[in-house]
Structures are given as C-alpha cells and as structure tokens.
Amino acid sequence: MNKELSTTILSEIHKIIPEPKCELNYSNLFELVCAVMISSQTTDKRVNQVTPTLFQKYPTPEKLSQARYEDVYECIKVLGFAKNKAKNLISMATTLHTVFHDVVPKTLEELETLSGVGRKTASVVLAEGYKIPAMPVDTHLERMAKRFGYVDENASVLEAEMAYRKYIPEEDWITAHHLLLLFGRYHCKAIHPECENCTLSKYCLYNKKI
Ligand code: SF4
Q1: Is the C-beta atom of 38 inside 6 A of ligand 1?
Q2: What's the CATH code of the domain at 53?
Q3: What pLDDT, in 10s, does the model give residues 88-121?
Q4: DSSP 206
Q5: Same domain, 124 and 35
Q6: Number of domains in the chain
Q7: Are 51 and 118 in a shared domain?
Q8: Distance, CA of 124 to CA of 108 (rounded, Å)
Q9: What three-state secondary structure class fits 160?
Q10: Ligand 1 pocket check: which of 13, 16, 188, 203 to mutate, most ligand atoms within 8 Å of Cβ?
Q11: 165: how many CB neighbours lie within 10 A of its CB?
Q12: Do 191 and 109 have their domain in common?
C-alpha cells in the first residue's frame, strides 16, 4: 500500500457511493452514543427500529440512568447481546450523568471510560458526533484493510486502524471511514462479495486469490 494507491481506491469507491454517511438515526450526541453502543453484532437497520422507542422513553442520561434493566432490555431485546447492551446502556448513562454532567466527552480516553464504549465506538462518536478526525475500524473496515492490502491477513484491528491512519490524509478519515464501511456492507461482503464487474478488482488482493 502507498498513499497514492489508497487515494485511488477511495476515489473509485466514492464513484460507487456518492453520498457516504452514517446510517444510524440519532438527533443528539447522547442518542448517537446509545445507537453506536447497541449496533454491534446487528445491523443499523435493526438499531433504527428500536431506537425511536428507546429514545422516547429515555431522552436524557439521567432518565436512562434511572431506568429498570428489564424495561431497557424490553426495548432492545430483538438485538443480539441485548442483555449486556441493556446493562451497559444504564451504566453508561449513569457515568455520563454523574461524572460528565450529561455532556458526551470529546476525547477517546474519556469516552472509553463509559461502559460498553470501546475504541471503535468512541472513534465513531468523535468522528460522527464531533467531526474530530478518527478512523473507527469495525468488521467491514478490517476486511477492507486486508482485501486492499493496507495490512496483511493476520493483522489486528488496531494494526488496520494504524495503516489507514498512515495512508489516508487525516482530513479524509471521516469520509474514508463511511466509504469503506458502506462498500464493505453492500458490495464487498464477507461472504459472496460482488466481484463480478467490481471496478475495484484490480486493486484487490482477495480477487487475485480466487
Ligand atoms: S473484487 Fe470482490 S473482493 Fe475485491 S473489492 Fe471487489 S467485491 Fe471486494
């Protein structure tokens, strides 16, 4: 990989996805944290089905911190890992209310002190919520990093993130994250990627193997 090749790959993806953006619905930073937290192991579409009720019942960190576990679980039970997610939502809201006075923190370190908020979720909140350059690597970005040769097959998620940071200009991280995620989600899927007629095939290591 090099910076020039990375730019070419991203501009080719941009032609396929002209309007890269977050597909989770939210109307404030608190809602964004909740939505991203519960989006693991499920689809954004499913998250968007449960969040209207969740946000209506618990519009603030204080309200959510006072919620009964059973009630929060009921709101999100169609999602995978709902039990853990419900516990984490209440715990996160409690810390947000008592420690951060209802203001979603603006640094990776502070965000990672919230229950259920790891590096990826924290990076999404920074990038999406605060427009602070960050490169969240989820399963799609990890796969894209390997298929396009940002990293080798055995690389960790953190190594993939560092490679993206190295080869993509910082001012492009947020857009690049959306492009790679949406390309991975809808075109270059984990199983049965749409390789026929893929305009990225000449840059793709996966395609060279099959
Ligand atoms: S050729 Fe297939 S694996 Fe490679 S980028 Fe295109 S869809 Fe993905």
Answers
A1: no
A2: 1.10.340.30
A3: 999 999 999 999 999 999 999 999 999 999 999 9
A4: H
A5: yes
A6: 2
A7: yes
A8: 10
A9: helix
A10: 188
A11: 15
A12: no
Structure tokens at 161: 């993130």
Angle between helices 44-57 and 29-37 (to 10 degrees): 130
Beta carbons of 127 and 136 less than 8 angstroms apart? yes
116 lines ligand 1 (CB under 6 A): no
Contact 42, 79 (CB under 8 A): yes
pLDDT digits (tens, 9 = 90+) for 120-133: 999 999 999 999 99
Q: With 60 as the cut, is the pLDDT of residue 18 above it?
A: yes
| Element at 146 (helix H, strand E) | helix 139-147
* Tokens linked to 59: 């519009």
Q: Is it the case that residue 210 has pLDDT exceeding 60? A: no
What is the extent of the structural domain holding 140? Answer: 3-20+134-209
Atom index in ligand 1 nearest the CA of residue 201 equals 1
Q: Is 188 in the pocket of ligand 1 (CB under 6 A)?
A: yes
Give the DSSP letter string of 13-82. Answer: HHHH-SS----S--SSHHHHHHHHHTTTTS-HHHHHHHHHHHHHH--SHHHHHTS-HHHHHHHHTTSTTH
Active site residue ranges:
120, 138
Please list, residue by residue across 39-64, b when 16 or more beta carbons sit within 10 angstroms of its beta carbon and e when fewer do: bbebebeebeebbeebbeebeebeeb
